[in-house]
Specification:
alpha/beta
């Protein structure tokens, strides 16, 4: 019997990668991408073994109401993307045979504004910004899909993120990674990376 999984339509690092990798497991997993506003109907019809949502989804009235009606066993079905960064799609995020330029990419998923420190007089960086449409700036080039992120990480010299977001992916692609709060010291080692396909087999297959 296949595992039935609901994945929120919302965007997050883990969920975006799950939506790509899960199709390698379609002989074992039936996947349903659902708008969180339709979660009640979907839950009743699909009767899922797992529900994958973002932390913002978890705060929504729809999930909170559903959660309050669940038994403890049912609550254990919910997987929340809490930003854990060691789960990586290593089929996508790896080194490629592409030329590496001298540019710096700033990944702004979890930033509220443009980091002005990047434009101080003592820093002469060729900067492009990505992944936060709410921030309006000349250097903001829009939102990237996962394969596009991998190309950026493989072809840009430096990657800057916040709270180590995309640290592992950047380093696996051969880039130099900096946290926005410490631009003087690059981070050169990954965490104990878990490939997303191994994560799917461990956490999402029917036991």
């Amino acid at each position: 019997m296949n595992t039935r999984i609901i994945i929120s339509q919302s965007k997050s690092r883990l969920l975006d990668n799950l939506k790509i990798a899960i199709y390698h497991h379609q002989n074992y997993i039936d996947t349903y991408i659902v708008d969180i506003k339709e979660i009640f109907k979907a839950y009743d019809i699909i009767k899922p073994n797992k529900i994958c949502i973002t932390s913002q989804d978890y705060e929504s009235i729809e999930i909170q109401t559903l959660h309050n009606q669940m038994t403890e066993t049912e609550k254990s079905k919910i997987i929340i993307d809490d930003g854990v960064s060691h789960i990586v799609n290593t089929e996508i995020f790896r080194q490629y045979s592409v030329p590496r330029n001298e540019k710096t990419a700033v990944i702004m998923d979890n930033m509220d504004s443009v980091p002005e420190k990047l434009f101080s007089k003592d820093k002469k960086l060729s900067i492009h910004m990505f992944n936060n449409p709410k921030i309006k700036h000349t250097y903001n080039l829009g939102t990237l899909l996962e394969h596009q992120k991998a190309f950026i990480f493989a072809s840009y010299k430096n990657i800057i993120g916040k709270n180590n977001l995309y640290k592992n992916e950047s380093i696996l692609c051969g880039a130099t990674y900096f946290d926005i709060d410490n631009l003087e010291n690059p981070i050169t080692t990954t965490d104990n990376v878990l490939d997303i396909n191994d994560y799917i087999k461990k956490e999402l297959y029917v036991k």
